[in-house]
TrEMBL record:
It is found in: Mitochondrion. Gene3D superfamilies: Aconitase, Domain 2 (3.40.1060.10), Aconitase, domain 3 (3.30.499.10), Aconitase, domain 4 (3.20.19.10). InterPro entries: Acnase/IPM_dHydase_lsu_aba_1/3, Acoase/IPM_deHydtase_lsu_aba, Aconitase/3IPM_dehydase_swvl, Aconitase_4Fe-4S_BS, Aconitase_4Fe-4S_dom, Aconitase_dom2, AconitaseA/IPMdHydase_ssu_swvl, Homoaconitase_mito. GO terms for biological process: lysine biosynthetic process via aminoadipic acid. It catalyses: (2R,3S)-homoisocitrate = cis-homoaconitate + H2O. Residues 39-475 form the Aconitase/3-isopropylmalate dehydratase large subunit alpha/beta/alpha domain. Transmembrane segments: none annotated. Its cofactor is [4Fe-4S] cluster. This is Homoaconitase, mitochondrial.
Amino acid sequence: MFRLTSTKLRTRIPLLQQQQQQLRRSQSTSSSQQTLIEKIVQKYAYQQPANKRIRSGDFIVLKPEHVMTHDNTSPVINKFKSIGASKIDNPRQPVFTIDHDVQNKSPENLKKYSRIEAFAHLQDVDFFPPGRGIGHQIMVEEGYAFPGSLMVASDSHSNMYGGIGCVGTPVVRTDAAAIWATQRTWWQVPEIVKVELKGQLPLGVTGKDIIVGLCGNFNQDEVLNTAIEFVGEGVKMLSIDERLAIANMTTEWGALAGVFPIDKKLIEWYYDLLAKREALAEIKTHSGPPPSHPRLSLERIKALGRIGEELRADEDAYYSKTLTLDLSTLVPQVSGPNSVKLSTPLPELEAREIAIQKAYLVSCVNSRLPDLAAAAEVMKGKRVADGVDFYIAAASSVVQMEAERAGIWATLVAAGAKTLPAGCGPCIGLGVGLLEKGEVGISATNRNYKGRMGHPLAQAYLASPAVVAASAVAGKICGPNASSVPSDPSNFKPQIKIVEHPKPTRISSPSKADAQSTEPLLPNFPAVFGGPLVFAPADNINTDGIYPGKYTYQDDITPEQQAEVVMENYDRSFAQTVRDLYPSSSTETLPLPNDKNLTARAHRSRLTGNGVVLVVGRNFGTGSSREQAATALRNAGIPLVIAASFGEIFKRNAINNGLVCLESRELVRFLETQFAGQAKDGSTVATHWNLSLDARSGKLELFDPQHSSLKEPAVFQLQPIGNSVQEIFVAGGLEGWVKERI
């Protein structure tokens, strides 16, 4: 534990005064401009005031167009029932797609699938059975995900919908159950990053190479927990299938969404899609006109031109940073082994003569018709090398039908490919064909984490479909046209650039045009959060550091015991520090909590907003999804955590359990400066300052009650606490919020 001396602080007061002056100057500026993502989110923000424009960082109540669940529909059903719900509020909103463990024919798994199907029929929800395809592909080809709309799914690769100009983002299972019951959940609009694709791709370089190159060259968490908008002349050159692949793997890049514009090429793609669907329908019906599709119609596609114009990003819209990649400098890329953050130019790997034992053309990122066609073109008249197993699975049964009609499927099978049912399969380590100990595999999938596709001592690489096919034929990692890439290694490094943009500060009073500097407060929501400030200066404090794994499955641990072990693996003195600053005696005048999951401290914090305020570094709460990491902090008497940034799943779990989380890089940098040389990783700084946050305006003040070390309050501007978070906090968590609405 460290104490700040007044002498050291006085030397830093000029810096504080400069920051306060900059804050006052910046408060006089505001912009009504919005990004593409902000405009789409605006349409899906539930009961948003008409004059309030959605901004990055806003907490909103989100009412998505659709919510997709797959094999995890079963636990979502259990969660749905456990919160007291019995009827899905809008049966047209959820979509159930069975795609993960479709090779598993065990009685137990088949029974689970039958239960899901029966629940779907009971609730009148659209259900796609095993073998129909991967959920994300179904959402696109069946028109659920559509340009200008917003979709969520209980799966991390929801980002893929951004390839068609649809904001797609993941939610956790509790959120999915809440949406079933109420049609909505909460969401914080992420920081938005612009990714500019300049120039034109060289021959033989694909969209998969773009995203593998982005992951490998911007590999310092530049886009972690952000939403990405792709722009630039290079976008126009990309096919829609390439855009879908790139958007899909923005998940591996660390983003929560990756969205392409709604442009002429996309509209033409939809006309082609409609024609293909009608042709397939005619084959099925054999006579008469095909039945009209419930979502893909000529009228809806004709409207896309207008929608694209309306949803174009404004010229002066704010992006936190701009990342630029010159496509003309890109060569084919291979990711790995066992990491998407490591990408290597294909020519370098070819020179290493890396033998492979397995190759895969499967998954939602690269098993659409153009992907299968690219592989078939490479393999035409050839055979898979001896000692290599090559597995293929179409993204959907529709894709497989098209590939069969075009002769593509037959070409791959004739070359020695082993077929799997449309579904996830080896990509997630399920079914046949997994990597065994010591084997090397190359795959057109999206993840190659250690042990994901088989044995943890195997090596997995990622590449484009053509490179995977060529490698399967050669028995080693190589491309179909090695001679077409530059021979000079200095030409292998793509040209990239990153520019960060200062964040504009919100204005100090609302205007008629954009009343967003304050948030109305709900009854019983604290107007002010405050108390002693504790600073944990480390970055990447994971959930095990917050709540040790050895306690995670001890179901008999009480809320009081949770509070005693909180942050134990980070700093064993943390819990005692919090108890000293916020003793139990401070709660004696309040009624006892009627919630058995709350301590007296947590109860008082919920009623008053008072308690110990924890300020932490970057990516706080990374790691596992254990909810106790949030509830332990809450039960210690911490009502508010402020971080430079959060792990997204931790933030969702925290707010779902009534723990408010806000971000302020400026506050963290200021505290790091004040405590430079004193605070170290693994230590807690008891500042002996107090913190006060105005929940309506987001104005935060640091002050010294003794007026000895901090002569003037330090002022910072944070995001006001949105209505969605207020509702959940007052209800005692998301489950309570849902129960109030069913």
